[in-house]
Amino acid sequence: MTPALLGNLGVTLTLAFSLLGLVLALLAYLQGDARFLKGARRLVLLAFLAALAAFLALEWALLTHDFSLEYVARNHSLNDPLWVTLVTPWAALEGSLLLWGLLQTLYTWMASRRLPDPWRASLILSVLFSIQAFFFAVMATVASPFQTLPNPPADGVGPNPLLQNHWMMAVHPVLMYLGFVGFSVPFAHAVAAMATRRYQTWVEETQWWTLIAWGFLTAGKVAGMWWSYEVLGWGGYWAWDPVENASFLPWLLATAFLHTAYVQRTRGALKLWNFALVTLAFSATLFATFLTRSGVIMSVHAFAEGPVGLVFLFGFLAFFLLGMFLLYRVGQEVQDPVVFRLFSREGALLLGAFFFLGWTLVVLLGTLYPLLVEAVSGAKVSVGAPFFNQVSIPIAIGILLLMGIGPLLPWRRTRPEVFRNLAILLGVLAVGTLMGFLRGYTPGTSLAVGLFAYNLAAILLLVGEEIRGRLRGGLSPWGFWGNRRRVGSLMAHLGVALMAVSIAFSQTYRVEQERTLYRGQAWEVGTVTLRFEGVRALDEGRRFAVEALLPTDRFGEVRPRLHFYPQMNAPLPSPHVVYTLKDDYYFVLMDFDRERGEWASLRVILTPLVLWIWVGGGLMALGTLYILWPASRRQEAKGVSPA
Amino acid sequence: MRFLLLFLTLGLAAWAQEGPPPDLSPEVFRIARELRCPVCQGESTAESNAGVAVEMRRLIAEMLEEGKTREEIKAFFVERYGEWILYEPPRRGLTLWVWVLPVVGIFLLGLGLFAHFRPHKPLPQELLEEAERRLKEPPS
User: Which among B5, B17, B25, B29 is the top mutation candidate for probing chain A, defined by the most A β-carbons within 10 Å of its own β-carbon?
Assistant: First the structure.
């Protein structure tokens, strides 16, 4: 047995099990025979195990340096440290498809353990099996991770240096895939619900899955921002790069879905919308893969290209059209019985969804525009960060405003105390903004301060109302913590508000400068004084490192580095970041005197409040986790509101 | 000597050094962030370390020294590379639409939403009568 044999066997078997499962599940639906369904359910675990075998085969090949595999020869070298070897499966296209496929079989298996009635169950399994079959068919044909080489080299080139520079690379892609793949389960439930005309219950049944997928996607995006900040050496965390945009689209659609699903759960409205949003969110994950893997757009993320893009375009179209076809029928049959008033919870949630959809539209347009112009007229145009920032700011302000008042609005109609709350909130907004102005901030950042205060006040008002309600009902005020949905969503909202204000400050007050220092020379930047003491070279086996020695008066010695990889002809800066509660100090070694080490060229970037972006992202993930954490019976009972 | 050895091993000796790079003020980076690096994939001139980007930063610093304004400097690069070099698409010609379309799109989306969710007319009389009639019938 060789890794290639085991891997090919695993991929082929997963494909076979998935196709067989698809046939059985469809038969179960068409014939109404439970025996077929039973058979299909048995195949779920088998497909997962076969996919796991294929994945382990790739790890095996990497760990044993089996360079007869093309993937290993291209992305691995003898010098790689163990942790880099272990994460190399997702360092390039074929391996990351395998990871994606493995996670898909895992989700299918988990989803198969809690299925609704046999009719929908057979359709849910059909959809999940066909997604799975799609991924493994791609791996069996155009993008095989187990392609062998006739003349294996003695050593490989190793993974892209950018990918082996930081441990975050072990985390970010896996989180992203867990998020992307997660949307296949709500999508499968939605398709089954549409086909069997059970339009209401599926949102309740898939709530757990939606939150899981959204939570992973959020964590994945934040991890990616952090990676970009720590590794790329440019001191930023979001560049509106096409690949970032492509994966931002599913996140935006999923966030909209999360909120409108709540309206359907509570009031039975927005059925058509929810079907549409979940179809779009799932299709967007495939579309993102098409955009990023086809080479049609230029991006710093273009680590992997190939014929796979086109296949994904077809996959995207197939699932998208399936969803749209069913949606058309739902649209004919369902009419929302609810009257939407703007000043009601459902009105605010709908408006929020509108903002998220609008944002999706804007980002999609901006990303595809250069492509469209070039296809139509051959001219080259750039649409970059300044464009995306300008169009996103008004939308973000709208979302932040809604986020505060929305949860305070009652369902159906307005109560008089809502206007009192609104007056308080607007007062806080005005005072916060004014305080910002008085401290000399720009109008934009002053507004961001105001919006943060406004959201904080909204959360306090909401918690106050909840606790007062409990006390009136003779309950312990601490029972509030048992209301997981409420507390978790407030945590996530607080995270968003915190992130928004930190982004406003870090974008506005970022200062970046570069200086050449001679040995012994000092430089005062911000509130820190650093001195250049010389450079030191280190041989780290797979790379050479040169670090500048910079003792400072505040944080001890900082040592930004330049890394020289044999597979790259330009050095890769590895910055030294000092996080403080207020400003981040970001030191980059740009260049140095290669003859005598007499001088070094240093870039220092001062960015305020960056730390709080990570804290905000953490709060969003923690809030999701808090909602999902299995509650004990007693806590569940406490969570029930007295009303 | 150690360094020389290091770079010979790496075959990087060709990476010629012309002496220490100039100091760059924060303003240089503010301008560079609005320009695309001509040879990189989706990076701005401020971020990239490609030779062209380094050279462009140096040029920006020199022009600032000479007292040129931000607009003049950007115009210089537009003349050299075309409007493609600007990360903020100009609001005219081919790239006007990228500014107009989002506004139009969001407006249409809002209009569609409003039309869809505007309070419905009451149910037609015959449907209400039908419902009344069914309620009175004994369950079959």
Answer: B29
Classify residue A57 as exposed, middle or buried by CB count within 10 Å of its CB (0-12, 13-18, 19+): buried
Q: Which residues pair with B137 in a beta bridge?
A: none
Q: Which residues of A touch B24 (CB under 8 A)?
A: 513-515, 603
A372, A373, A382, A567: best mutation site toward chain B, by most B Cβ within 10 Å? A382
Single out the residue of A573, A577, A536, A535 nearest to residue A555, CA to CA.
A577
Distance from C-alpha of A52 to C-alpha of A109, rounded to nearest angstrom? 12
Beta partners for residue A515, in sequence order: A602
Mean local confidence (pLDDT), A283-301: 71
Selecting from B2, B3, B88 the residue whose C-beta is nearest the C-beta of A386 gives B88
Q: How far is A607 from chain B (nearest CA, A)?
A: 12
Confidence of residue B38 (pLDDT cuts 50, 70, 90): confident
Q: Which two tokens stand for residue A119?
A: 């009719």
- The residue in chain A having the minimum alpha-carbon distance to the alpha carbon of residue B47 is A234
| Residue B114 neighbours by CB under 8 Å, 6+ apart | none
What distance in Å separates the CA atoms of residue A27 and residue A48, rounded to the nearest whole number?
A: 22
Do A377 and B94 count as a contact with CB atoms less than 8 A apart? yes
- Helix-, strand-, coil-residue percentages of chain B, each rounded to 5: 60, 5, 35
Which residues between 584 and 603 in chain A have a beta carbon less than 8 angstroms from any beta carbon of chain B? 590-591, 593-595, 597, 599, 601, 603
Q: Cβ contact (<8 Å) for A365 and B101?
A: yes
Q: Where in A47-154 does DSSP place strands (E)?
A: none
Q: Helix, strand or coil for residue A485?
A: helix
CA distance A23 to A5: 27
In the predicted model, is pLDDT for residue A638 greater than 80? no
Q: Report the pLDDT value the prediction gives residue B119, as an integer from 0 to 100.
A: 65
Contacts of A589 (CB under 8 A, 6+ apart): A546, A547, A548, A560, A561, A562, A573, A600, A601, A602
CA gap A82, A88 in Å, rounded: 10
Q: Which residues are A592's β-sheet partners?
A: A600
d(CA A173, CA A223): 9
The two structure tokens encoding residue A356: 């998220």
Q: How far is CA B115 from the centre of its chain?
A: 33
Instruction: Over range B17-28, report the average pLDDT.
Output: 86
Look up the ipTM and state it.
0.83
Q: What would the mean pLDDT of B121-138 be, rounded to a whole number?
A: 76
Mean pLDDT of A182-210: 93
A361 and B26 within 8 Å at the Cβ level: the answer is: no
Q: How far is B138 from chain A (nearest CA, A)?
A: 26
Whether the CB of A374 is below 8 Å from some CB of chain B: the reply is no
Sign of CA dihedral A409, A412, A417, A419: positive
Residue B94 Cα, gap to closest chain A Cα (Å): 8
Confidence of residue A297 (pLDDT cuts 50, 70, 90): low
Q: What is the largest CA-CA distance in chain B?
A: 103
CA distance A77 to chain B (A): 17
Q: How confident is the model at residue A303 (pLDDT cuts 50, 70, 90)?
A: very low
Residue A25 binned pLDDT confidence (cut-offs 50, 70, 90): very high
Contacts of A377 in chain B (CB under 8 A): 94
Q: Model's pTM, two decimal places?
A: 0.91
How many other CB atoms sit within 10 Å of the CB of residue A429? 23
By C-alpha distance, which of A500, A589, A510, A605 is closest to A546? A589
